[in-house]
Specification:
With 260 residues, the protein is of the alpha+beta class. It folds into two domains: 4-132, MutM-like, N-terminal (N-terminal domain of MutM-like DNA repair proteins); 135-254, Orthogonal Bundle (Helicase, Ruva Protein, domain 3), CATH 1.10.8. Helices cover 23% and strands 21% of the residues. It has six helices and eleven strands. The chain has helices at 4-14, 41-44, 143-149, 159-164, 174-184, 197-217, and strands at 22-27, 50-56, 59-64, 69-72, 78-81, 84-85, 102-108, 113-117, 124-127, 243-247, 250-254. Strand 2 and strand 3 form a beta hairpin. The model has no long low-confidence stretch (mean pLDDT 95).
């Protein structure tokens, strides 16, 4: 599933679309669900060119001389430019690209195209998306921003649930959250606002190191914990049996021996 690392790969691919005049835009009824009524991409984008490719969290942002064209990729969304895929595969994707799964396409005057490919039909396109609804981008997250993101009244929600909240921190998904908490030695069930100062600093360091290392490896599915996220899986650090639960609405794996 695409998380911040995969969207950064897509952003880099999308740089190949810059400066190319847009001929037409097609969006199916699934990808267009989040569009503002009365504003269709094919009404506002043809004749323009993408001038910059940005990203905030899991949101890809393609600027033009006019509106910003946004793309969200759901659980199985991929990006193709002129037939080239942004990544080889998604961990829970189908492993193939088929025409029937194209949800949105931007066709250029030069004959090429930028395509949103999504079997699960959860990807979306937007015109001038509200970036202010997202928290700070995980790649550039400061210690103070992390501290602020984990603040809550009373005990607060579970730590993993807060890490997955895109309004608090933009970009961290299920696989990355499990890897980060496993490396930091912190239980995903801990109240988000009950970390000690040294734990907060350690988590911040781990967030940065995981993003850097896994980006170089090839994606969110390349973490050290990944191969053991299954029934009967054992902690790669100490061999203890992993626990499984649903936290923040997502399947969660952690080691009860060293994650406290």
């Amino acid at each position: 599933m695409p998380e911040i690392l995969e969207i950064e790969y897509y952003r880099q691919l999308a740089e190949g679309a810059l400066g190319r005049e847009i001929k037409s835009v097609e969006v199916d009824r699934y990808a267009g669900k989040s569009l503002t009524p009365g504003i269709r991409p094919n009404d506002v984008l043809p004749g323009l060119s993408f001038t910059a490719a940005r990203r905030k969290g899991k949101l890809l942002l393609l600027e033009t001389e006019g509106p910003v064209f946004g793309m969200r990729f759901g659980m199985t969304g991929g990006l193709l430019l002129d037939g080239l895929a942004g990544i080889d595969r998604l961990e829970y994707g189908p492993g193939t690209y088929e025409t029937k799964w194209i949800r949105a396409s931007v066709h250029f005057v030069d004959g090429g195209a930028l395509l949103l490919h999504d079997p699960r039909r959860l990807g979306r396109v937007l015109i001038d998306p509200d970036e202010d609804r997202l928290g700070p981008d995980a790649f550039a997250l400061s210690l103070n921003e992390l501290r602020g993101a984990l603040e809550a009244r009373s005990d607060g929600p579970a730590l993993k649930a807060r890490l997955l909240d895109q309004a608090k921190i933009a970009g961290i998904g299920n696989l990355l959250a499990d890897e980060m908490l496993w490396r930091a030695g912190i239980s995903p069930l801990r109240p988000c606002n009950k970390l000690q100062p040294d734990e907060l600093k350690r988590l911040h360091r781990v967030i940065r190191s995981v993003l850097t290392q896994l980006f170089k490896r090839g994606g969110s599915h390349t973490g050290d914990l990944m191969s053991e996220r299954h029934p009967g899986g054992a902690c790669p650090k100490d061999g203890h049996a992993l626990h499984r639960a649903t936290v923040g609405g997502r399947t969660t794996w952690w080691c009860p021996k060293h994650q406290k």
